[in-house]
Design brief:
Layout lengths: L5 E5 L6 H9 L10 E2 L2 E2 L5 H4 L3 E4 L13 H8 L5 H6 L5 H9 L19 H13 L5 E5 L7 H18 L3 E4 L3 H6 L3 E6 L2 E7 H5 L3 H7 L3
Helix pairs in contact: 3-6, 6-7
Length: about 220
């Protein structure tokens, strides 16, 4: 993986996509090999250690946010060097207007719901907030674990467009697992297919642009 890559990862159920992502994130241990991040081999490092450079958005919108806290409080938690004092005083520290500026481009009305507990948001609003929180610190690696799979088609499209906008604007190196062939083809500069724990296809540039859904689906049978 190169700096600035936006990689879509596809494959059959049980092919090893989630295992790959979980191994990179540290929630699964690797038996061998190395995982190099910021010139450090992190293969033996904990999830919390890796989180200094990695962020992750999960399939379940509830996993990336704290439901009992407000939208503003969740954003405070996502900022680096946060502590309990800043949670209590975030409004008095002039954060309110900054949070509104951050949320308005999402076009989901969240800038007017800063005091709302996150558990009362829709799935799409909550996932958009999760995405924003995961990218606030400009991570060296962003992991997207089927992050639109639980959303309805329109909301899924909106969150994917938002994802593409943020990733490209911030030049974030990103790996995204998806079951949607259309998303794998449309987004990112590189596409990887995983089968039986092995990478069987790795295309980028014009080779990726020239692929179509029918051809890609046909490769699952090879």
């Amino acid at each position: 993986m190169y700096d600035g890559d936006f990689i879509s990862v596809i494959g059959n159920n049980g092919a090893g996509k989630s295992t790959l992502l979980n191994t990179i994130a540290g929630t699964l241990s690797a038996d061998a090999g190395s995982i190099n991040l910021e010139n450090k081999n992190v293969i033996k490092k904990s999830v919390s250690y890796r989180s200094r450079w990695m962020s992750r958005v999960f399939q379940d919108p509830k996993m990336g946010t704290a439901g009992e806290l407000s939208v503003a409080e969740n954003l405070v938690l996502a900022q680096s060097h946060v502590n309990t004092t800043s949670l209590k005083w975030y409004n008095k520290k002039g954060q309110w207007e900054k949070f509104q500026e951050l949320l308005k481009p999402l076009d989901m009305g969240l800038e007017d719901r800063l005091k709302t507990q996150v558990k009362y948001l829709s799935g799409g609003q909550r996932q958009a907030l999760s995405l924003l929180m995961a990218t606030l610190s400009k991570p060296k690696l962003l992991l997207l674990d089927e992050h639109t799979a639980a959303l309805d088609p329109k909301t899924s499209r909106d969150v994917m467009n938002l994802t593409d906008e943020i990733v490209n604007r911030e030049k974030l190196t990103t790996m995204m697992i998806t079951h949607k062939m259309s998303d794998a083809l449309k987004y990112g500069n590189r596409l990887i297919m995983v089968q039986d724990g092995q990478i069987t296809l790795d295309v980028s540039g014009k080779d990726k642009q020239n692929l179509d859904s029918e051809e890609l689906v046909g490769m699952f049978d090879n």
